[in-house]
């Protein structure tokens, strides 16, 4: 997505082979969130990294938002063992339903 001259181009894509969603800024990998398919309809998000050179620009939030939206669209539930993913779900309670009901208390949702 590009908004005009001098605007950063951001892309989030799933890398199936690496079991992660990646965010790129102007064509350069800026971060990722890793998951494990616990079951066909349940992904555990366990680690997120954002390149320190791009921290503070909201890329982590954009990454997690796109990742959870993508799995939700496929009917996949989420176990947010990654603190960043868990914090995102706390800030966006409308998406907390992605966590199975039996696991919500464990994650404080």
Automatic annotation (TrEMBL):
> Which Gene3D superfamilies does its entry note?
3.40.630.30
Domain spans labelled N-acetyltransferase? 1-109, 13-100
Question: What is the name listed in the Swiss-Prot or TrEMBL entry for this protein?
Answer: N-acetyltransferase
Short name of one Pfam family: Acetyltransf_CG
PROSITE patterns annotated for this entry?
Answer: GNAT, GNAT_YJDJ
Task: Kindly give the CDD domains that the UniProt entry links to this protein.
Answer: NAT_SF
